[in-house]
Each structure stands twice: as C-alpha cells, then as structure tokens.
Design goal:
Blueprint (H helix, E strand, L loop, with lengths): L7 H8 L18 E2 L4 E3 L1 E4 L9 H17 L1 E6 L7 E3 L2 E2 L13 H4 L15 E4 L5 E9 L7 E3 L8 E6 L5 E11 L9 E4 L2 E5 L9 E6 L4 E6 L3 E6 L2 E12 L2 E7 L2 E9 L3 E3 L6 E12 L6 E10 L2 E6 L4 E3 L2 E3 L2 E7 L4 E8 L5 E4 L3 E3 L7 E8 L8 E8 L3 E7 L5 E9 L4 E2 L8 E2 L18 E6 L2 E11 L6 E6 L5 E4 L6 E4 L2 E7 L6 E3 L16 E2 L5 E5 L2 E5 L14 E6 L8 E4 L4 E2 L5 E5 L5 E6 L4 E8 L6 E7 L3 E3 L6 E6 L7 E3 L13 E4 L6 H6 L7 H7 L7 E6 L9 E6 L2 H12 L5 E2 L1
Parallel strand pairs: 3-55, 3-56, 35-36, 56-58
Antiparallel strand pairs: 1-2, 4-54, 5-53, 6-52, 7-8, 8-11, 9-10, 10-28, 11-27, 12-13, 13-14, 14-23, 15-22, 16-17, 17-18, 18-19, 20-21, 21-22, 23-24, 24-25, 26-27, 29-30, 30-52, 31-32, 31-51, 32-33, 33-34, 36-37, 37-38, 38-39, 40-41, 41-42, 43-44, 44-45, 45-46, 46-47, 48-49, 49-50, 50-51, 57-58, ...
Length: 765
C-alpha cells in the first residue's frame, strides 16, 4: 500500500504515545501527498492551458501557492541513530589520544605512551626542593602504560561469564618513572628532606644507606609521629585499637631501640634505626626514623640516656637497580627497578610494575597500584556501550524449523525484515519459503532464464550503499496500461513499472532497468542500477544504515564491518559469518570468524570483535537461535580505560529515534491540462487549478462544454458565484482523486487556493 504522510498534528500525537485512527483527521491536503524515500509521487498539480495558449496568470500563482503548501507535507519518518558520547573522567585521565583509542586487543603503549601532569596535574605534579648543598632539585613523575596491557573480552579463572577485562600480572605491566632534572645527589638528602611523588609525601632514608644505585623512600601519609625517651611511654590508637608503647633501652652501634608494646617486648627485641616493623596484631608498619643519645642535666655530671622517633603507619620502599621492589621489607614480585645515574647523581628512577599474581580486572572494577599505592586503573565499559541504543542492530533469527530471517535498517531509516534462507531438511536454499526465491544476483542477459524474478519472489537493489528489498507482487496485462508491481518491504511504498513505455524502476534519482517476459510473467531487474545493457552477472551486497555490508553466501550470512576511515591504531574491520546448518542441535545457527563465549550453562553465547561489534546469540537445544549484532557504526567502538587517584568514568549518549524529514522534490509536479492526453492513465492524485472555462479537465469532471462553460459553472450544483473547492473520487475512472480549486474569476481562484493552503478541501459559494 502507498504510505501517505500524516498531518503534523497526528505526528505530534503519535510522538506523545497516543493511539491514532487515520480517519480521525478528516480530509486534508496532506492526504493527497504520497512520497517514497526520495521523491514526491503525488499529487500532480494541473493548470488549464498549454505552451501555445498560456494560462491565466492568477491560476499559475494559485497553483504555485498550492504547490508550496503541498511541499510542507512531503515528509517521511526516518529512524536515526543515537550519538555516542565522549567519555569523561573525574579524579583521573583516559588512556586515549587524538589518533589512537583503546580498541579491543590493542596494546596501551601504542594508544598513549606516557601519562604526565598534563592529564593528571595533582597526582603527577612537578616539584622542587633545596638539598643540603643548597642545590635546587627539580623533579617530575609520569606513568607509562605497558605493551603487555590490552582490553580483552571473555572468561577467565576469576569469572565464568564473559566480560570486558584487562589482566595485570607477569604479562601485563606498566612503568612509573621519576625524572630528576639536573640530577639528585643521594648524599645531600636525608630524613629531613621530603619529596611529593604520585600524590604522596615521602622522606628520604638515611644518607648512609643511599647510593647511586639504591634509594629508600618513606611515605608519611597518614603516619603518626611518636617521640620517646628511655623509661617513657605513649598511648596511641591505630585502626580503632589502643596501644601503649614504652621505651626501656637503646643501643648506639648499630643505632637501635628496645620497646614494649602493651607490656610485651617486641620481636626482634631491638628495632634498628631505618627499619620498619609490624605493630603486633596489625598490618600497620612502624618506621624507626631516628635513635639518638640524649644528655640530661648539663654537659658535665649529667645523665646520658637515649631517645627515639617512630613513624606509625608509614611505608618504606627500597629501590635498587636491577632488583625487585622491597616494600616494608616484603619483596614485590613482578616488579623491577632501573636507576640511571651519572658519576655522582641519579637522573632517573624507573619501576616496572605488575602484581604478585595475575589480576583480571573486569569491567566496572579498579586495580590499585601495589608500589606507590596512590592511584588506580579503572575499566569502564565501551564507547558506545556494548548494547547501547546508539548502536544499530542486525538480527538473524532461526525459528527452530526451516527459516532464517534477516532484519536490518537501511540508509533511509526503514527496517527490512525478510526470510532469506529456507531449509528443506538436508540443506538451505536462498529462498523465503522454499518456493519463492530471494534474489541478490542479476543474471547475464545471454543466460537462459535470465528474467528469473517470478511473482512472489524478493529481490535486492542497491546503489551508492542505499539498499532496498522488493517483492514482485503482480503484473497487469490490460492493453495500453501494462505494468508490473513491486512493493518496498521497508517503506511499504508500491511501485508500478510500465515496462512498455518506461521500463525503469524509479526510486527518487535511482533508476533500475526492468525487463518483462510475457510468456512466464517473470522479470529481470538491474539490481545495481549501473548496467543498462544487461551484461552484469554480479552479486549485490546489502548495506545497513551505518553501512555495515551484508552478503549472502549460501548457507552463510556474512556481516562485514566497514569503517568510514582508518587512522592511528584503528582496527580495519572483519567479516563475521553466521552459518545456518542442520549438522548440529537440529539446525543451530553458528558464528564463525570470531570466538564465542558461553554464558553459564545456558545456550547463550556472546562475542566481541576487535572493531567493537558485539554479538549476542541466544538459543536452545532444538535449534532455535536468535542472534542480535550490535554494530557500533562507521567508527569502531573502544574501551574506556582511565588512571588516576580514584577515576570514575561516565559516558553521555544521545538516544536514537525517529524524526520527520523533508523529502526533496526533484521531479516536476506541475502540468498543463493539455499535457494529459489520456486521463484514464493517470497514476497519481490531481489538484486541478481553475474553472471549466480555463481547465479542460475540470470541464470534463463538471460535465460542461466549452461553448456553455460559464453558464454551466454558474448553475453547477445549485449555483456558484465566488468559487468551489471539491474532491472527485475515482476521477476519470483512474482510481485516483482529483481536487478542483477554482474561482469565478482570476482573483477568486487565488482566494480558493489560499483556503486550500489553510486546510479547506470542501467549499462552495
């Protein structure tokens, strides 16, 4: 059936969720408007006169006014894709760059080699301090994503259902690097000097333990500082528990202190200066920062005793070139230190970091850095989201018996759904029901049976990636009006091809040659619209709204990912094949060229390509399979990876929907009455401008003669003094409507045209 455009008020009501009956609108000018996806099919505006006998100027102006009003109804409802938002991060920065994204399987170092204070101004802040030699030391820190870190999709030992994930471990490491601009002299700094690295304050270890290939740092973040002398005690609260710490002795070589905690001597008995020890019954560490000799009562005759300073809750990190990290005297495996120095200064401290055991970070979770402890890595979904409404859906459904249905939305925003394969019990054929074929190949005109599209068959046409699927409905053999009829599956628009006078299927500016075989009533159609000589013998692809390519290769449905362009580390796209087969589970539908992952013990499989196309395949044991392909569009989807103090990722996406879009009118819609020589051959509705004396078609409808036209006009239907607006159904026996817009004189015709513009379709005065 023809799709007629609804009045704007009706569209608004539909958008608001109302249920609308078309008859509720009554007659309106929009009821005359018929469009397909690229042109105005109806109405034709007819003015009396001819090229040699010009019409009245007022009639012409009235026709123009009505034509402008008609154009306002020449619209179509189209489906539009949503817009993928740009991810944003709080308390962190994304691993991304202008050219490169964190695509599935791409290593992070190729996306962004270095994260600096540009992205993380607080965590990676630059700093300066003055050493004992009054030299100004400038330093800066950075994070370097590793070549072994990627985002994958699937299952691991940590989770049994498939997720996006990243593995940090022996094969998934990253680096942190501290650069000392001008160099750091380890002998010129000690516990009195502090440095801020990765969002935490550190003090240097004793100069006696430092060197050009070893550096010790103590974190003082959250630490309590306690000072004691021999015989003294102090009460502290750590992690909600109360402790009493007493000092009862000290030693000078090596400097150390003997303590009791809650009345019990420590193990070991003497804690050495610069060492870190565990608070009994807790994981909290205590650093013996300083042990000193204290003389009381003056220089002579006074009592000599000892004192100590403790940092409770500190972290001690030892960096030694070529070695693993020692943190609080515990080795961190999967780490490695590299110290670069000159003859007297350290210029770079680099640490390769991975956790002790593989950590499979799944989507929505964070991984905390084990060395510095002050930043996290976060994996936060994809852009666009895996099943986001922004993506377009391609559906492949197997009903468990013998049909495979393909559904997709084309560039015009129309959804096309049709059975493309039929199973006979042993194999599949490219037919919709075992009898009527689904044609994607145009035969060469030299081949036998080249006019191979029979009534009831379906066929695909494609030009410039604009795909439409048609059904061959019927043929009409009446002499002088012979035509074949096709219906557009997506839009519902009916197309008639008068193959004896105009043998083209015309869809807007697209033209596809049509040849009719009168003996079999079958036709051939130039499927690609590019071969008027009928020599082509090629298979036509189908294209979705976002230009994914779909090809049928019995018994496969192949979906090819097609990026608009490629830059940087973009994936090139691949072919995803869906195989209809009776060979397993009574005819399952399988995916090939990609790895699927089972979901628990169900019959559901999921897969994700490097382009970011998500495949969700739900089935059962008897072969019912429903596949939804969530295609990201003309640009590949990428994972959202962030690093920072506490990164949180959000992605704002604009949802898709339908919009009313104007149809460009590129073909003439106005004619002289003299140009319509055979009214019975009219194939669209008419709007006739002018009375019976000016417009011969109006004279025919009103049953007047040229000699008595004005008298007949004045006497018509009770009399007319100003004008008439009247609809004639089945005008001239054509099955089409004709709307007469006529005034008694030129000025009145323009008045009648203005009334039509305002919605009046029935008027007589």
């Amino acid at each position: 059936m023809n799709i007629r455009q609804i009045l704007a008020g009706g569209l608004a009501a539909i958008a608001a969720g109302a249920t609308i009956a078309f008859g509720a609108f009554g007659a309106g000018l929009g009821d005359y408007v018929v469009t397909d996806t690229a042109q105005l099919l109806s109405p034709m505006i007819v003015i009396g006169g001819s090229a040699t006998a010009p019409p009245n100027a007022a009639d012409v102006l009235g026709g123009i006014d009505v034509g402008v009003a008609v154009a306002g109804y020449a619209t179509k409802l189209v489906t539009v894709a949503g817009a993928a938002g740009v991810p944003s991060v709080t308390d962190g920065g994304l691993i991304t760059s202008d050219l490169n994204k964190t695509y599935i399987g791409k290593t992070w170092d190729l996306v962004k080699s270095t994260v600096t204070d540009t992205e993380l101004p607080v965590l990676l802040a630059t700093g300066t301090f003055i050493d004992v030699n009054t030299s100004e030391i400038s330093y800066q820190s950075q994070i370097e994503p590793g070549s072994g870190l990627t985002v994958s999709y699937g299952t691991t030992v940590d989770f049994q259902e498939p997720f996006l994930y990243t593995t940090f471990g022996s094969g998934g490491k990253y680096n942190t690097t501290v650069l000392f601009l001008g160099g750091l002299d380890p002998s010129a700094v000690g516990s009195d000097y502090s440095i801020e690295l990765y969002g935490s304050d550190f003090t240097f270890g004793p100069t006696s333990t430092q060197g050009l290939q070893k550096l010790t740092l103590y974190s003082s973040v959250g630490a309590q500082t306690v000072s004691l002398t021999v015989g003294g005690s102090v009460d502290v609260t750590v992690e909600g528990s109360a402790y009493t710490i007493e000092m009862f002795a000290y030693q000078t070589s090596p400097a150390g202190v003997a303590l009791k905690i809650n009345g019990a001597s420590t193990t070991p008995t003497v804690w050495i200066e610069g060492g870190t020890y565990s608070l009994p019954g807790s994981t909290t560490k205590i650093l013996v920062n300083d042990v000193s000799v204290l003389q009381q009562g003056g220089a002579q005759g006074g009592m000599v005793t000892g004192s100590c300073q403790l940092f409770i809750g500190t972290s001690k990190i030892v960096f030694e070139d070529g070695m693993q990290i020692y943190k609080n005297d515990v080795v961190l495996t999967n780490t490695k230190v590299s110290i670069e120095n000159t003859s007297s200064k350290i210029i770079k401290l680099e640490v390769e970091i991975g956790p002790d055991m593989d950590n499979n970070l799944k989507d929505g979770e964070s991984f905390t850095d084990p060395v510095w402890g002050t930043f996290k890595w976060n994996l936060g979904g994809m852009t666009p989201g895996i099943t986001s409404d922004v993506r377009e859906q391609i559906k492949i459904d197997r009903d468990g018996s013998n049909r495979v249905k393909l559904t997709f939305t084309n560039r015009d925003g129309n959804e096309n759904g049709v059975d493309v394969y039929y199973g006979s019990g042993a194999a599949f054929t490219q037919t919709v029901d075992g009898t009527h074929a689904f044609h994607t190949k145009q035969l060469n005109s030299s081949e036998s049976g080249w006019q191979n599209i029979a009534i009831g068959d379906y066929f695909v046409v494609n030009t410039d990636k604009r795909t439409r699927i048609f059904k061959y409905d019927t043929y009409y053999p009446a002499l002088g009006k012979e035509y074949v009829q096709f219906s557009d599956i997506g839009s519902g628009v009916i197309y008639k091809v008068y193959y004896k006078t105009d043998s083209f299927l015309r869809i807007g500016t697209q033209t596809h040659n049509v040849s009719y075989d009168s003996s079999t009533h079958s036709v051939a159609v130039d499927l690609s619209g590019g071969d008027p000589t009928w020599t082509a013998n090629a298979t036509v692809s189908m294209y979705t709204r976002e230009e994914a390519r779909i090809d049928l290769e019995n018994p496969f449905i192949n979906v090819t990912e097609s990026p608009l362009y490629t830059i940087g580390n973009d994936p090139l796209g691949e072919v995803i094949s869906f195989l209809a087969s009776y060979s397993a589970s009574n005819g399952a539908l399988f995916t090939t060229n990609t790895t699927t992952h089972d979901v628990g013990t169900t019959f559901e499989d999921k897969a994700l390509t490097s382009y970011g196309t998500f495949i969700d395949l739900l089935g059962d044991s008897v072969g019912i399979k429903n596949v939804v392909v969530y295609y990201p569009g003309k640009r590949p989807a990428y994972a959202n990876v962030a690093v920072g103090a506490n990164p949180s990722i959000t992605v704002g996406e604009a949802a898709g929907g339908t919009v009313e879009q104007a149809v460009k009118i590129t073909q003439p819609v106005a004619k002289f009455a003299s140009e319509i020589s055979s009214p019975s051959g009219i194939t669209s509705d008419l709007i006739l401008i002018g009375g019976p004396c000016a417009n011969s078609l109006v004279a025919t409808l009103m049953n007047t003669t040229l000699a008595t036209c004005f008298a007949d006009w004045q006497a018509y239907d009770g009399g007319i003094t100003e004008g008439i607006i009247k609809e004639f159904t089945d005008a001239f026996g054509s099955g089409q409507k004709a709307l007469v817009v006529a005034g008694t004189n030129a000025a009145d015709t323009r008045t009648m045209a203005a009334k039509v513009m305002q919605g009046t379709l029935n008027y007589q005065n």
